[in-house]
Amino acid sequence: MIGMRVTQTLIPTLREVPAEADTVSHQLLLRAGMLRKVASGIYTLLPLGYRVVMKIEQIIREEMNRAGGVELLMPIIQPAEIWHETGRWDVYGPEMFRLRDRHGRDFCLGPTHEELITDIIRNEVKSYRQLPLLLYQIQNKYRDEKRPRFGLMRAREFIMKDLYSFDKDEAGLEVSYQKMYEAYCRVFKRCGLDFRVVEADPGAIGGGETHEFMVLADTGESKVVFCTSCDYAANVEKAPCDPQIIPSEENPRPLEMVATPDMRTVKEVADYLGVPSHQLIKTMFYKVDGEYVAVLVRGDRVVNETKVKNFLGATSVEIASEDEVMEAFGVPLGYAGPVGLQEKDKIKVIGDHEVRYLVNAVTGANKEGYHYRNVNTGRDYQVDAWADLRVAGAGDLCPRCKAPFQAKRGIEVGQIFKLGVKYSKALGATVLNENGKEVPIVMGCYGIGVTRTMAAAVEQNHDEDGIIWPPSIAPYEVVVIPVSHRDMLQVRMAEEVYQSLAAAGIDVIYDDRPERPGVKFKDADLIGYPVRIVIGSRAVEDGLVEIKWRASKEILYKSKEELVPYLRSSLERSKNNCI
Ligand code: 9G3
Q1: How far is residue 482's CA from residue 477's CA, in Å, rounded to a whole number?
Q2: What percent of the chain has pLDDT over 70?
Q3: Is the CB–ligand 1 distance for residue 109 below 6 Å?
Q4: Domain 469-576 classification at class level
Q5: For the chain, where do the domains classified as CATH 3.90.960.10 start and end?
Q6: Residue 365 and residue 373: Cα distance in Å, rounded?
Q7: 92 CA to middle of ligand 1, Å?
């Protein structure tokens, strides 16, 4: 018999929006009494919040197991040694939580588990006959985010399901990857989420192909482009884009320096000189693996740092500060430009393809208070290379079918990677293959942000009254509310209905607080139970209870006898129709 009474649990709902809340899901999870902050980026999941997480975890477990996954549990605290072996101990800086034990040995709180799981495999697996293996855990992860925000969406401690696949060859990895791809689609469908799978950039983890599972939401931190005609979709970090050339009938005019006092931004300069922003060349300075690189993009574009990193085959790309640029090249920020830049030593200049086609462009003169007009590539400046270095956006053309993109924002709730042999080589995890040859094991890794999925579900399912939980992950499926807590007939009937639902295996909570009905109705809408049952005078007189669906706001009446079969079938249907 499951079921709960409100007076027995802890659901501290709030009327006011807490100041710390910086996105709607964070606000609502706090107000619904499901989450409380302990420190920046560190939260307590209160009883109702934890029930949602447990339901999401259960859906994940069922789908991982169905795909052949086997669950284990690795330690959160990890010895530095294995991170030294892969060389990652020094790659990750302050983002890694590090600590020492009483003997002064180095450890970290696990931000991920590639090293740890590969260490297990290299000790326990020797023959291809033991493969494939799909091992996973559901465990807290720790990443000391510079700017934790949006509640559980970017926390410093969060729950992740991480699965690692081990195959004897690339063909095996293909099979494992496909199994996980399909399992992930089932997980997010069963969680009632509107999601898309997009091509992504592997980033520091290395390896090959990778896909991200994005819950569409305007508050999402990720930008994604979707083709309007074929099914191509990609994270803008990865999406390739051709130059969009704006034809110009002008002939190159003589280079001219113009005074632009205190005009630094693209907009200020464009307005002051009366040219459109796409006529400007924006010069951005980066430190790429410690070397200075100037990147040129059109004034109306944004530099894609992932593309810069990939083009230069670098491991770290970070924007250079105003002082560094002034110190190194005497170039005041806001007045930077490519003319005469390449001649300066210790700088590489690379340009996005679009810049190459600009005729009579405007750029900074590398001199305080001055810009150049009529800048033309070849005559006035050279670059070391031209490449696709900009962020794709709406209107850019699909690399597959050339139809225009549309741009959306998304919350990344899952990511799957083909790792290849990067970790198995570094740690010596090999097997003897069918020809008796020792080969490195071919790996994949697959993550789902469990707590982030809960937050994403709220971002996607709420209205002005509060959360609207998809039934499959709701903290409780049904809330039973007596209109009067003084009318013994109503209270008795409410008890009976509650008991009958619980006995029928429906996840039901009974609001037995000595409160006015209005308070209970507001809480029920805020918390977002899928179904609300009200027992009022009408119920006592003609035996009909009121049923209200939170999502559709549909209200209907059923007798006590009809109630259980109706709810069981309608809840089952709503939970299954997203499979
Ligand atoms: C670190 C720190 C932060 C990190 C990593 C390592 C992200 C790190 C990438 C991954 C890749 C996959 C398995 C599950 C799915 C994601 N942030 N990544 O490796 F030391 Cl401090 O975690 N891992």
Answers
A1: 17
A2: 99
A3: no
A4: alpha beta
A5: 256-387
A6: 9
A7: 10
